[in-house]
Design brief:
367 residues; Rossmann fold; five-stranded parallel β-sheet; 14 strands; alpha/beta; 19% strand; elongated
């Protein structure tokens, strides 16, 4: 009888402690431990991947939750016509996740804000945002600038600077399958990645139920993923599948493709400059200007203004002094709504200082 009473007390303390920890985690780590929801991707033979055209939904990340919509061309932002309106100066902006305007805590992004400011001051300007997220994707972005971008007939391409030019071969391709974002190196790997999801994830309904409703379990998955703790691997068994389900992210290259990729591939200075010069020449032949740009002061350690000037390439830096309020800090490095507002304002202020742009803005005044 005494043993049973002791067992009841221990059990009560144990379950009370579990409930208390669960409540604390739900209050303290509500954002960090929420189940992710992501954009929808489709494989693209030229760019590697792009957003699924006309897609819409909700993005959930630790730093923010927001709705998203993709236009009919598979790019972020509003729809636009293939042919620009007569007398309109069309600017194509090409960058990555920070520039596409989706990875932030609200609807404002610097591309649309800049367009609004220019139009409010009487300039017939349209900015189309052709940015797609992904780090080390400058080869892709340059390919986009000198390729598909031209069918939209921009007068100017604003290309976010990344130098030297890089290409991430390990995660060159992306697709979304059953809500999971798959990253892989070769198009042929997609079918096997889908099969893995069907076999390893779709059948684990009880495990998914626990992840959906238990913050303690999510906390342990997150801790093991970040710190690779042996005891947790033993207790939780297959934490990889649990993490894939929770984070909606399958890095197929690391799971099944055992080849040692030299990724990202970094082009030499000579190769980088030549690729940019070739792209500029192609744009010039289509009567389209190219300007490379940086946002934050001291972002890179090279004198790009000098390098690009010596090679006949136009470059501007907004030289914004970085402020912690312009991003989400350690939770997420993307630009906040305040940051997007500052970037748009700085762009607006610097545009008239660029002779080519000043002349074009003057020519494209609304009547």
């Amino acid at each position: 009888m005494k043993f049973l009473r002791t067992l009841k007390i221990i059990s009560l303390i144990f379950f009370t402690t579990l409930v208390a920890i669960e409540i604390i985690l739900r209050i303290t780590f509500a954002k960090q431990l929420q189940i992710y929801s992501k954009l929808t991707f489709m494989q693209d033979s030229v760019l590697g991947f792009r957003y699924f055209p006309n897609a819409n939904g909700t993005m959930r990340f630790p730093a923010y939750t927001r709705n998203f919509s993709i236009n009919k061309w598979g790019f972020p932002g509003k729809n636009f016509n293939l042919e620009k309106d007569s007398g309109t100066y069309r600017i194509a902006l090409i960058g990555t996740s920070d520039d596409c305007g989706l990875f932030t805590n609200g609807p404002l992004n610097y591309a649309s804000l800049l367009e609004d400011s220019l139009r409010k001051t009487g300039h017939k300007v349209e900015i189309i945002n052709l940015s797609i997220d992904g780090s080390n994707k400058s080869v892709r972005n340059i390919t986009l600038a000198g390729g598909e971008c031209l069918k939209y007939k921009p007068d100017l391409v604003l290309l976010r600077n990344e130098y030297p030019v890089t290409e991430d071969t390990k995660t060159k391709f992306r697709s979304t399958y059953k809500g999971i974002e798959i990253k892989y190196a070769h198009p042929s790997a997609l079918d096997s990645a889908k099969l893995y999801i069907d076999k390893h994830l779709a059948l684990k309904q009880f495990q998914h139920y626990v992840i959906d409703y238990c913050y303690i379990y999510r906390f342990l998955i997150r801790a093991n993923y970040r710190y690779n703790i042996p005891i947790l691997r033993i207790v939780l068994k297959n934490t990889t599948d649990s993490y894939i389900y929770w984070a909606k992210n399958l890095l197929w290259t690391e799971i099944m493709d055992k080849r040692n990729y030299n990724s990202p591939v970094i082009l030499t200075d000579k190769q980088s400059i030549q690729l940019l010069k070739d792209t500029k020449a192609r744009l010039d032949s289509n009567k389209t200007s190219l300007i490379l740009y940086d946002i934050y002061k001291g972002q890179y350690d090279k004198d790009y203004k000098k390098i690009y000037k010596e090679n006949g390439l136009n470059y501007i830096s907004l030289d914004i002094a970085y402020n912690e309020d312009y991003s989400f800090g350690t939770m997420d490095g993307h630009t906040s709504q305040k940051g997007h507002i500052i970037i748009a304002k700085t762009f607006f202020d610097i545009f008239p200082q660029i002779p080519e742009l000043r002349n074009e803005l003057t020519r494209h005044k609304m009547k």
